[in-house]
Amino acid sequence: MEARPEMRADVIVIGAGPTGLACAIEAQKAGPKVISLDKGCLVNSIFHYPANMIFFTTPELLEIGDIPFSTANPKPNRLEALEYYRKVTEHYKLDVRQYQRVETVTGDDNDFHITTCDRLGRVYDYVCRKVIVATGYYDRANLLRIPGEDLLKVFHYYREPHPYFDNDVLIIGGKNSAAISALDLWRHGARVTIAHRGPKMHSHVKYWILPDIENRIKNGEIAAYFNTTVQEIAADHVLLQTPEGEIRIKNDFVFALTGYHPDYDFLRAMGIELSSEQCRPVCDPVTLESNVPGVYVAGVIVAGSRTNEIFIENGRFHGQQIAADLRQKLG
Prior knowledge:
Layout: E1 8-14, H1 18-29, E2 34-37, H2 44-47, H3 78-91, E3 96-97, E4 100-108, E5 111-118, E6 123-133, E7 154-155, E8 168-172, H4 176-187, E9 191-195, H5 210-218, E10 223-225, E11 229-233, E12 237-242, E13 245-250, E14 253-256, H6 264-269, E15 295-297, H7 312-315, H8 318-330
């Protein structure tokens, strides 16, 4: 059956985060009709960042589509970023279909068929010539795979401190997200404990945050167990394996902030080959076209498991690389 015009495009971008939007903008500039699909809202990952989060980078490094990011602050916050990306989407009149999860990508170069499903279970069928995959990684948490991880008191994302006032909270992890959430919770009245498998807070913790968290630990305001793993999470306590042996501590809530990873199964289902060690997709380093002709990869997924190599700051340029190839191949 012939697809309706509104379901056909030259290029479909899977993912409407900053990199996906940058790819849609650059592809659209090259002339083709572009549709963007996302299983969540616009820049869904940024929306799910902590409510009061401040970016580590300057606003100009978050810019896409040659649209200035104006802010009075040296480092923009989450709300400013959400507004910026909404305005960019409006400026370029991008066709973004939100809350549509991509279920399947089939077909061949110049004749791809994409099936999506929305929140109400309705199915949509798209047809396109080229596909750009910019699905990020933030919605796939690295699981601990320990007893009790599925309890309702356990979270893999931190939003805001208020619900945890006067509660015993365990933070699992030792990088930026762990340090920031631990400090935020402590400053808003939670009793905070950190458990980290390393010997100290990670060296990648930002330079202005590291002394703050280290001083809180030194002063005994935040408890910390290093060289420690969590053995079990129970309704009112957790079991920790420390260098001194197993200990049990009282607990109300757990934030397992142990990192995130791309949806490797989704990439493999499209036929994209991944490197054995780091799960990097096989792709042309210049055009970013994968081993599947007509399917491009962009953003953090290009780095595979090395998610600390690509951020908005450099992933936003992937759209230009891909668009240059699309100009030649789509004419």
